[in-house]
């Protein structure tokens, strides 16, 4: 069962603080939402996870989609080390992790799809367009970039989200994009975009952008 996959991922981390963080992330972006996002991933092929953190979501997708080869990319070496250790404990050979800042991402390899889950609002505004351009270069025509983000409206949901962001990572700056603004940017760099509204009982304004690389 996929709910067991979530529990297995959490149990793969030794540190109780990290486990608590994992529960928090899975509480916000729950299994139902992960599966809503996952339906847009290819059945097989190489997938890039930008800003993978501890590897929570890549470990989940590598578990439930064994035909995918997922590569995670994050600037925090400690998080990458813990993601690698968790992958070993789970016996996953279809996921690997590299240290690097997403704003310095320059592609090079080709991927069948990519995703960025709640990462764009932590990236300096001036660095977002160059990053999206680089990601677009790694994808084939028709390849998908999935961007899960936080809307600015309604304001009370944005402030609730801002509070959670600061509790989880107080040192990281936050800049939320409006939906039309981020969609326009994705279209400018070469994607056809439609938005998938993710309705939540929590006051959390989820938006999923499904960006398909134009020829």
Task: Describe the structure in your own words.
With 215 residues, the protein is of the alpha/beta class. The chain has helices at residues 2-11, 16-28, 31-38, 56-64, 77-90, 125-138, 155-168, 179-188; strands at residues 45-50, 68-74, 95-99, 113-117, 144-150, 191-197, 206-213. It has a single domain (2-213), classed as Rossmann fold, CATH 3.40.50.150. Helix 4 (56-64) links the parallel strand 1 (45-50) and strand 2. Helix 1 packs across helix 4. The mean pLDDT is 87.
CATH topology call: Rossmann fold
Which sheet architecture does the biggest sheet show?
7 strands, mixed
Count of domain modules: 1
The low-confidence runs, each spanning 5 or more residues with pLDDT under 50, are: none
CATH superfamily: Vaccinia Virus protein VP39
- Strand order within the widest beta sheet: 3-2-1-4-5-7-6
Coarse shape: globular
Portion of residues within helices? 40-55%
State which percent range the strand residues make up.
15-25%
Structural class: alpha/beta
Quaternary structure classification: single chain
CATH hierarchy: architecture: 3-Layer(aba) Sandwich
How large is the count of helical segments? 8
Element pattern in H and E: HHHEHEHEEHEHHEE
Give the C-alpha Rg. Answer: 16 Å
């Amino acid at each position: 069962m996929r709910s067991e996959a979530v529990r297995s991922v959490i149990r793969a981390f030794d540190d109780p603080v990290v486990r608590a963080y994992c529960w928090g992330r899975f509480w916000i972006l729950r299994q139902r939402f992960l599966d809503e996002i996952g339906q847009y991933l290819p059945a097989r092929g190489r997938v890039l996870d930008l800003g993978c953190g501890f590897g929570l979501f890549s470990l989940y997708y590598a578990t439930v989609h064994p035909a995918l080869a997922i590569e995670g990319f994050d600037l925090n070496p400690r998080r990458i080390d813990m993601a690698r250790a968790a992958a070993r404990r789970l016996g996953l050979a279809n996921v690997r992790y590299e240290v690097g800042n997403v704003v310095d991402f320059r592609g090079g390899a080709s991927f069948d799809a990519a995703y960025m889950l709640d990462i764009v609002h932590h990236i300096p505004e001036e660095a977002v367009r160059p990053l999206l351009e680089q990601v677009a270069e790694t994808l084939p025509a028709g390849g998908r970039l999935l961007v899960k983000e936080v809307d600015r409206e309604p304001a009370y949901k944005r402030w609730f989200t801002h509070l959670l962001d600061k509790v989880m990572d107080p040192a990281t700056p936050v800049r939320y994009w409006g939906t039309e603004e981020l969609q326009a940017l994705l279209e400018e760099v070469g994607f056809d975009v439609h938005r998938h509204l993710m309705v939540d009982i929590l006051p959390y304004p989820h938006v999923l952008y499904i960006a398909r690389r134009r020829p």
